[in-house]
Design a protein that fits this description.
single chain, 422 residues, alpha+beta, BirA Bifunctional Protein, domain 2, Rossmann fold, eight-stranded mixed β-sheet, 23% strand, elongated, RNA-binding
RNA sequence: GUGGCCGUAGCUCAGCUGGCAGAGCGUCAGGUUGUGGCCCUGAAUGUCGCGGGUUCGAAUCCCGUCGGUCACCCCA
């Protein structure tokens, strides 16, 4: 705090030991659940040609226009830090041609958007996402949503709300927007200032305005799906029927809009009450993208890891008092210090995490250090123990201590082993 | 990109009608010459975010800047 030298860039955060453990555990759980659905991991570059995002997300979207970290490299190429994960995966899928026709891929990694930071919004943030490649089929969309919900419940989140809607087909998008604008036009003067601006810039955004006056007007306007083709409506109905069969609680939400241009048909968003203004934990949808002559179709979603952690912290706060599987060695005297150095190595060769104070300090100070490190056990050694060839083993949680020999020490500590040998 | 609030010890913050830089927690040491968490005693620790201005004198007032935070916007 004293100096800028210690601070990361605006909107970027260091992730330290207490949180990193929870992140790693969440990632491990995600990998397990993805495997259940036949999803394999992919890691695409963080840096891509800017053009990739402009073409796939849409050149007029806010993400591309206002939020992308775009710059020229030394060769004058226009590059960008990826603002989301789908475009890179699609580029990969297109490069594989028919070999990736029905690929199921998931990714975990950092994304970048140059926005003003706030609760649940960083400039570098992290997403876990999945893409199920394949032609439009309501069952595929339902399966993607089922996977999405499975992930969140696997992490222990129970208060999520899943809302679903359709974006219609790309060829009818312009017609939907102008029809909607036409219905809104008579009420123009009653709309809030922001919405009057939205009518020109991005008319569908009027739908999620929080202003009560605007919401009252929207109540008299038919849902967005009414402006769509019969085919688009039937597709959404099919997806919902599948989800009902899977007994997944979802809400049909005619006002749900998603900002990326590549979406068509099904879109959904998952919110959580703990999150404040940025309450979307995750979002997804069906998409179609063109790469040269190749079209890539699929359905996918992304989860914001920071937001999941916020929600998780509220639903089930981390237990910071819990002791770690760690043995702390305490020495009384110089000879014991040298002996303990050897014991450290022995313990580690037996897959036991072990530490000690490396300089000579009071026994009391060493106990305090062990407690502060949340060690579960200490082994105390002084002249008497070394002479008798024993170890004083103390359980820090219960306070019990006992003199044991080497084989017994290993037996007592065996439950703490980090990797069981086979 | 726009706006509100904030920036003082490792952490949480007080001090802000200008006049010696503080408290609690934590850390370290001792009380107990071999036992953590509780208690008692003592000690160490600061470019008062940074730069400039006003003043005899600025943590305090003014301007700028950087950062944090919340909201708008947008999204995960």
């Amino acid at each position: 705090m004293a100096s800028d030298e210690f601070q990361p860039l605006q909107g970027m955060a260091d992730l330290g030991p207490p949180e990193v453990e929870r992140w790693a555990a969440a990632e491990q759980e995600a990998r397990r659940i993805f495997a259940l659905y036949g999803c394999e991991e992919i890691r695409t570059p963080i840096l891509e040609r800017a053009d990739l995002f402009i073409r796939s997300l849409g050149g007029e979207t806010d993400v591309v226009q206002k939020e992308m970290y775009a710059f020229e490299d030394r060769g004058g190429r226009a590059l960008a830090l990826r603002p989301e994960g789908t475009a890179g995966v699609m580029r990969y899928v297109a490069s594989k041609g028919q070999d990736a026709g029905d690929a199921r891929l998931f990714y975990i990694g950092p994304m970048f958007r140059a926005e003003r930071p706030q609760a649940g919004r960083r400039r570098q943030f992290h997403q876990i996402g999945a893409e199920l490649i394949g032609a439009p089929h309501p069952a595929a969309d339902a399966e993607a949503i089922a996977l999405h919900a499975h992930l969140l419940s696997g992490w222990g989140l129970q208060q999520c709300r899943i809302r679903i809607n359709s974006r219609g087909l790309p060829e009818e998008r312009a017609a939907i927007q102008s029809a909607f604008r036409e219905r809104l036009l008579p009420h123009r003067d009653a709309l809030c200032e922001d919405c009057r601006r939205r009518m020109e810039a991005n008319v569908l955004r009027v739908l999620d305005c929080k202003n009560p006056a605007c919401q009252a007007i929207l109540a008299d306007i038919p849902p967005l799906t009414d402006f769509m083709s019969a085919a688009a409506r039937a597709y959404l109905d099919d997806v919902i029927r599948h989800l009902e069969a899977l007994e997944l609680p979802i809400e049909r939400s005619p006002n749900l809009v998603r900002g990326l241009d590549y979406y068509l048909h099904t879109v959904w968003e998952i919110t959580h009450p703990a999150l404040g203004a940025q309450d979307a934990l995750a979002g997804g949808g069906r998409y179609r993208l063109q790469f040269g002559g190749r079209a890539v179709e699929g359905v996918g979603f992304a989860v914001g890891v920071e937001r999941v952690m916020m929600a998780l912290e509220q639903e089930r706060p981390a237990n910071t008092a819990e002791r770690l599987p760690l043995v702390w060695l305490i020495a009384h005297g110089t000879a014991a210090l040298a002996e303990n150095m050897r014991l450290l190595q022995t313990l580690r060769r037996h897959q036991l995490a072990a530490r000690m104070c490396l300089d000579e300090r009071s026994v009391k100070a060493q106990f305090r250090a062990a407690d502060r490190a949340r060690a579960s056990h200490v082994v105390v050694r002084g002249e008497t123990e070394i002479q008798k060839g024993v170890f004083l083993l103390k359980n820090l949680a219960t306070g019990e201590q006992e003199e044991v020999d080497m084989p017994e020490l290993m037996r007592r500590l065996s439950a703490l082993r980090l990797h069981e040998k086979t």
